[in-house]
Each structure stands twice: as structure tokens, then as C-alpha cells.
Amino acid sequence: MKPDKLADGVYRVAAKVGVRDLFEGIWPIPDGVMLNSYVVMGTNKRVLIDMVKDWDGALSDVSAQLQSLSLGSLPLDYIVINHMEPDHTGAMAKIVEQFPGVEILCSEKAVPLIKHFYKIEKQVRAVKDGETLDLGGKTLQFLMTPNIHWPETMMTYVKEDGILFSCDAFGSFGRYDHCFDDELNEQEMEHLASETERYYANIVSSFSSFVLKGVAKLDGLSITMVAPSHGVVWRGEPQKIIGWYKRLATYMQGPREKEVAVVWSSMYGNTQALLSSIVDGLRSEGVVVHVLQVPQTHESFVLEKVWRSEGLVIGMPTYEYKMFPPMYHVLDILDRSHVQGRKVIRFGSFGWSGGAQKQFDEFTTSMKLDCKGVIEYQGSPTEEDKKKAYELAKALAKEIKG
């Protein structure tokens, strides 16, 4: 890859990585992910904003791009650390070794993390909220945006060009052949939309209240580009991704989309036997229905659809007096991600004994779910069970429609 020019003296140096891996050791990235770093070159000083982890050759790719910008022969004056997670800082020791005079600028809470992660204490300086740095024709402004999504996170803004370097905020999964949003075709934009929402649900959703605070902090800035550390640079519609994240953040408390996620699992087909009645009842009212089978569907994709949906249907059998284990795992992920307040119904079969409902009730309480009904039956469902499921699902859809 070659450096991408964002403005005079401002470049993206990036790597495409990760098709075979799990992001954060949890989330599938079948289309990989971008690792974006940025260079800002003033007349007096040069800055590298965020870094990469040496992952799938990312460090050598970025180093080659830095060389092409003459940063191999010219001094690098500053490294700005917006966020300490290793995918943005893993190469810190090697970069500091390459540029021994470089000063690291970060938030106050990042200083001890640099020491503990990389054993670096010298030439590390904490910047304050709103502080500026004059590079000569380029002025950086530092904005503290804690808990998007670690406590030490901040963003960096180039005043002269209106470029916001937002690190994990406004990012997405996926690898793209183009740098900018306005270079993507319709199919690529559809892929970006899905991977943006899945990224948000998987990585950021738990911190939605802080996202809203961070977005509010940007109101006074004239932003021409949003440059995250994952995904594309938003040049054509920078306010679109900011507004999008704001909407995604509001899904925590609501309102959410008038859609229903049906998450189901079945051992021998007896729980599945009620699925079509549920889905038909929901669709009879014209609502969008997302049907997701677990464990066949990874919880990453389940969380994406559940996060945006006002309605949630859980179908699972009892397994040895408790919930079917794959569904318990999914609900645990949803609970950890602060999925709360959805309107929910639950259905499922049991063999010699029930027990799943007791555990489900615990999740209902923890997640503050508004339970609209339960259909639980021994063995296979009767025609009466199917009719009841259809009517219960139809009623749920009507309530969601408003």
C-alpha cells in the first residue's frame, strides 16, 4: 500500500489485516480489518498519530509507507496516542527505537499504561483537554473523550484542515481498497454499513452513554473528515458517520428500530417446530424480522441485529435442568453489552423436566427486559401451542409498530 493523502501534509498510512483471526480474540472478521495510522507534517514538526500492532505484516507495511514520506531519514518529533489498546500501540517500542528522540503525547490516564505495557517512561507527556500543539502551519487540538472505549481515550483534531482523528470511535470492520467513503460503490457501502453496525455493537455498545458525551463535545468543530483507526476515512459525508454513531448509541436506552431479532436454538427440532409460527406472526404485521440460529450464527452477528431491534424473541430448549448452553452464552454476551429494555417473548421445549425458564428469568431481570409472554411445552408443540405462538408474536409486532 501507498500513503493516502488526506490534505497537504496529512497522510494515512494503513495496513489490511486479520482475515484468519478473531478481533480482540472474540469477534470474527471474515473480511479482515484496517489498521490506520496518520502522519501530520507541519513546517517545523512531524507527528505520527496512533500506530499498529505487528499483525499480518502491518508494521512492515506501515514502516515502508513512512519511508516513502521520508520519515525514515527525517526525525519524527511526536507520537500521539489516542487510545492504548495494543492494535494501536503494539509497535510502540520499535517505533521509539527507530526514532529515539520522539516525544509521546497522550492523556493523563495513558501514561501509566505506556509504562506497564511497553516499559517506556521517558519522553512521555500528558496533554490536557483542549490543549493545542503548533507544528508550523498545522495545529493539533486534543479532546478528551474517555471511555470510547477505554478510560484514557482521546481524539485529535487538525484545526487548519478540519480533520478529526478519532481512533476506535467511528470505526468499522472490513478491509477496503479505497481510503475514502466517497470512493466506494453501492455494494461496498452496503458492506461498510453492516460492518460499521457490527463493529459498534461488538466493540463500543457498552459505552454508549460516553459516545453521546463524546459526540456532543464535537459540536463546536468544523469537521471536514473523520479519520478513524479502523475502516475508511469519511470525507464525502463526515457528519453521516457521527450522526450514525449517535443513533447507534441511543439504542441503549431507546428508541430503537421497529424490528425484531428472533434468536433460536434447538436440539432435536422440537423448539424449531414452533419457529415458523413465531416468524409468521411477526411478519403478518409487516415488521422487519432477523432470524438467527445459534450456535450456528456467531454471537457477533447476533449482537449486531439485537442491538438495533426493539423486539427480541428467544427460542431455546431446557438442557439438563438449565438453559441450552449456546443460548446461555449468547444471552451473557448481550447482557455484558448492555442490551436492555427490549420487548421480549420466549418459547422452547423440555423433555423430562423444565428449568430453562428459571435462568431466563434471571436474564430478564438483569437486562430489564419487558417480557410479553412465554410458551413452554413438553416434547413437541401442539396445534394450540402454534396458534398461541402466532398470536403472541403478532401482538408483539403490533406493539413495536406503535
How would you state the average pLDDT, rounded?
96
CATH fold node name of the largest domain? Metallo-beta-lactamase, Chain A
CATH class of the largest domain: Alpha Beta
Measured distance between first and last alpha carbons: 50 Å
Which structural category fits the helices and strands? Answer: alpha/beta
Number of domains: 2
Total strands: 21
Poorly predicted ranges (pLDDT <50, ≥5 residues)? none
> Rough shape?
elongated
Write the layout of secondary structure elements.
Layout: E1 4-7, E2 10-17, E3 22-23, E4 27-28, E5 33-41, E6 46-49, H1 58-68, E7 78-80, H2 86-89, H3 92-98, E8 103-106, H4 110-118, E9 124-126, E10 132-134, E11 139-144, E12 154-158, E13 163-167, H5 186-204, H6 208-217, E14 225-228, H7 238-250, E15 257-264, H8 275-283, E16 288-293, H9 299-308, E17 309-315, E18 318-319, E19 322-323, H10 325-336, E20 343-350, H11 356-366, E21 370-378, H12 383-401
Parallel strand pairs: 6-7, 7-8, 8-9, 13-14, 15-16, 15-17, 17-20, 20-21
Antiparallel strand pairs: 1-2, 2-5, 3-4, 5-6, 10-11, 11-12, 12-13, 18-19
Plain-language structure description:
- The protein is an alpha/beta fold and 402 residues long.
- The chain folds into 2 domains: 4-250, Ribonuclease Z/Hydroxyacylglutathione hydrolase-like (Metallo-beta-lactamase, Chain A, 4-Layer Sandwich), CATH 3.60.15; 257-401, Flavodoxin domain (Rossmann fold).
- It is built from 12 helices and 21 strands.
- It has a 7-stranded mixed β-sheet.
- The termini are far apart.
